[in-house]
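explain this.
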Amino acid sequence: MTENRDVVCKAEYEQPADELEEQVAAVMAEVLGVDQVGRRDSFYDFGGTSLAAIRICARIERRLGFQVDPAWLLEYDELADFAEQIRLGAE
């Protein structure tokens, strides 16, 4: 069951800024069971765990073809920062 983002996260929703952020947000929302993830939303606000980080990174790797280290998500827990780490890792 998908939960409404606003029930779990009190921050104002900020739309993903580009295609990579949109794709990563979709994966995060799917794994975390929420309807959407904004660019300044923290992975931890949605109850993110190390297992969820591994699942998110594995799905991103399968769908987008980028190597993604789960430690990036644990350290850079906001969507925009995590997507930036993926960009930097892809270079």
Observations:
- Residues 6 and 12 are 8 Å apart (CA to CA).
- The two ends are 37 Å apart (CA to CA).
- The longest helix spans residues 50-64.
- DSSP finds five helices and no strands in the chain.
